[in-house]
Design brief:
The protein contains 11 helices and 9 strands. By secondary structure, it is α/β, with parallel strands linked by helices. Strands 1, 2, 3, 4, 5, 6, 7, 8 and 9 form a 9-stranded mixed beta sheet that branches. α1 packs parallel to α2 and α9 packs antiparallel against α10. GO terms for molecular function: glycosyltransferase activity. It holds the Pfam family Glycos_transf_2. Keywords: Glycosyltransferase, Transferase.
């Protein structure tokens, strides 16, 4: 007998690009969400401000050949605003997020949609990531996040509980929480905090869903006074909204001060790879 066809929920997938994205990496990222075992019913590309000619050629090609929906901003507004634009224009209730230089595993959406069908109460469905340098076969680490709702919410009080490039969102809850908003390098974490206050239900699945490109620049982006001030400001917001206690606020800010503001990039990179990540299989 032939296998019964599964009627998966229709969903949108969104991927953004901006001037500093590598055109070849962007193409690999786009094709990894197009060539899925369960294809998106809609792919949205957000173009955040002016982009170089070679990158724009890729965007135009994907619009022509794959019917991608292109949403362009006249100026660079940041990743959070690009995601907000996609949420506002998406046709479907479920929206999958993807980054411009990472690679989704071929059955990522199939796995997430099966969970969504079994548990329609979940508002965010994320998963694990494996980090690589140059080639996905060169895995240097894995960021593991908690699985069940209560564990995700407990983890959220300390750190961001999702790998944002893996998530599948219920758009009605995202909009109920005020959609993505601008918050330097923390737009996703801020959204999850606001969704928490609205009663959202969270989960991560144990499988690796995305291979994430890493390097020295990533550790630079996760450090410096501007990054620390953004994180400290978010911790204060969480304190004011009773997500964390005052002692936890002090502890969280102190750790971030040491790691993000005072620590040199090379040591921060070592800490992330050796202490904050599990070792990948090379």
């Amino acid at each position: 007998m032939s296998e019964k066809k599964i009627n998966y929920p229709k969903f949108s997938a969104t991927i953004g690009c901006y001037k500093n994205d590598n055109p070849e990496d962007f193409e690999k990222a786009f094709l990894s969400i197009y060539n899925q075992t369960v294809k998106p019913n809609e792919i949205i590309i957000t173009v955040d401000g002016p982009i170089p000619k070679e990158l724009d050629k890729k965007v135009t090609r994907f619009e022509r050949e794959f019917q991608a929906v292109i949403l362009r901003s006249a100026q660079n507004n940041g990743q959070g605003m690009a995601h907000a634009l996609a949420v506002d224009h998406a046709k479907y209730e479920y929206i999958a997020i993807m980054d411009a230089d990472d690679i989704s595993v071929p059955d990522r959406f199939e796995k997430q949609l099966k969970v969504a069908m079994e548990h329609p109460e979940y508002d965010v469905i994320g998963g694990q990531i494996e980090e690589f340098i140059d080639n996905p076969k060169n895995v240097v680490g894995k960021r593991e996040v908690p699985l069940e709702d209560h564990m995700v919410k407990r983890y959220l009080r300390r750190r961001c509980p999702f790998n944002h490039m893996t998530i599948l969102l219920h758009s009605h809850m995202v909009k109920k929480a005020g959609n993505y908003q601008d918050w330097h390098y923390n737009e996703d974490y801020f959204l999850y905090c606001r969704m928490l206050l609205q009663g959202a239900v969270f989960c991560n699945i144990p499988d690796t869903l995305v291979y994430v490109r890493v390097g020295k620049e990533m550790y630079k982006r996760r450090g410096g006074w501007k990054y620390f001030k953004s994180e400290a400001k978010l911790q204060k917001w969480m304190l004011n909204h009773k997500i964390i206690s005052f002692p936890m606020y002090l502890e969280n800010v102190f750790i971030r001060l040491c790691v993000q503001a005072l620590m040199p990039n090379w040591l921060r990179g070592f800490m992330f790879q050796k202490l904050f990540r599990s070792k990948g299989n090379k």
